[in-house]
Amino acid sequence: MSGTFLGMPAFPPGVSPQVPFPEAAAGAVRDERLRANLRNATRTIREKRARAVAELADWAELRAAAKAVKDRALGRLDHHLVQLEEKVTAAGGTVHWAADAAEANRIVTALIRATGEREVVKVKSMATQEIGLNEALAEAGIRAYETDLAELIVQLGDDRPSHLLVPAIHRNRGEIREIFARRMADWGRPAPEGLGDAPGELAEAARLHLREKFLRAEVAVSGANFMIAETGTLVVVESEGNGRMCLTLPRTLISVVGIEKVLPAWRDLEVFLQLLPRSATAERMNPYTSLWTGTHADGPGGDGPEEFHLVLLDNGRTDALADQVGRQTLRCIRCSACLNVCPVYERAGGHAYGSVYPGPIGAVLTPQLRGTKSPLDASLPFASSLCGACYEVCPVAIDIPEVLVHLRERVAGQRGHRLERAAMAAAGYVLDRPALLRAAERAAGRTRRLHPRRLPGPGRAWTDTRELPAVPPEPFRDWWRRNRA
Fold it and tell me: Which residue has the higher pLDDT, 458 or 287?
């Protein structure tokens, strides 16, 4: 790989880059049904995950090992990607390099058109959501069918994902039943008459709806959880089996994968197959772990694709890699553990983040991939209380609070934040001069009765949700000198 890949993923459909997170979240926190759905789902997942993790006495060691593997992979990313390309090519696959979302969409569209097909089935993939692939294919007259149950719900409901792992977490069973009954017929087999909202009934309706698509599909599009440079193997982990149907039945398989998903060696996978299921779904192992290397060698009718294409996606990742503090974000394995413990996400939901990557990881990953020029992206590093819960549960030890503070500094340094820079400069000037600091503290203590309960001007937003701290009658240093000196 030569040169630096640049690119910015498109904003999700219906999302304005001009609406900052606080404004987008304001409506969400007033939606009682949404908050109830999120509260019930995240707390259930959180409690189950804690029990699953507690079963492993060496969890801390596994976490440290995963961090080390990912850092090693990122440290020699150019070498590992070239090795991966060589191995995939030797196994009968074709590797394509995409600098940004537009190029990736052009590559995938051209590959599908070359098959003569106008329909594809899809494995759940954050990368394809990131680049807006479904929308690009629709413009080219190609219909993409989501096969993951939650993604199917989102697609049929003309909705957007709100969670990394459970995209329809903001929907309850009644809403899902209504979506199936109203929209399934528009996309294929209609929902059964008299469909109820029991989980078994909803799952069976989805199974019947999708089966005809699996059986006639000639082209599938996937992502991958991991890529093994040593062997050219790709890995998809899932809970439903829909992914495996897409990976094995169609003749052509196109996988769009971020360049950071590469692992150096086959043995590295063992660590992540222990960490990922417990962090994501609180399972000891994934029900379905699919691995493939290139194309199958059994001729027509064999297991796996006859034609395999791997699209390696940059889309801002090398820019993130160049950031000494922010590059740790690229360790992310998309488990969603950070979302399930975040008090901000639990109340605001995923749509307020304006990205396919919501929650704490989205608050640091999205501004690195898209930049911080838009009001929305500039606001994301501030969508956190910095409580640190996300770092504690992260299976690859991403210090999300550290990256948030780092990105806040970047945003504050941008043009248009003169007031904040002036305030920091004034505070620095006072704190650097002890005599001036003492005088300011004494003046604040003597005038405390005149202090307002809310800050004026730009400070009003801070005191809209917080009480202004009370100033003590005298500085601590004066009290100490009088009582302890």
Answer: 287
Token digits of residue 207: 């199974």
What are 402-447's pLDDT values in tens digits? 999 999 989 987 755 677 778 888 999 999 999 999 899 889 888 8
Q: Is 334 domain-assigned? A: no
Q: In what order do the strands lie in the sheet with 219-222?
A: 94-98, 307-313, 252-258, 219-222, 119-122, 143-146
Instruction: Assess contact for 403 and 48: CB atoms under 8 A.
Output: no
**Predicted pLDDT of residue 299:** 56
Instruction: Tell me if 412 is assigned to some domain.
Output: no
CB 239 within 8 A of CB 289: no
Q: What is the pLDDT of residues 87-139, one digit of tens each?
A: 999 999 999 999 999 999 999 999 999 999 999 999 999 999 999 999 999 99
Are 6 and 316 in contact by the 8 Å Cβ rule? The answer is yes
Residue 210 three-state SS: helix
In the beta sheet, which residues pair with residue 31?
none
Domain C-terminal end among 317, 335, 358: 317
CB atoms within 10 A of CB 340: 31
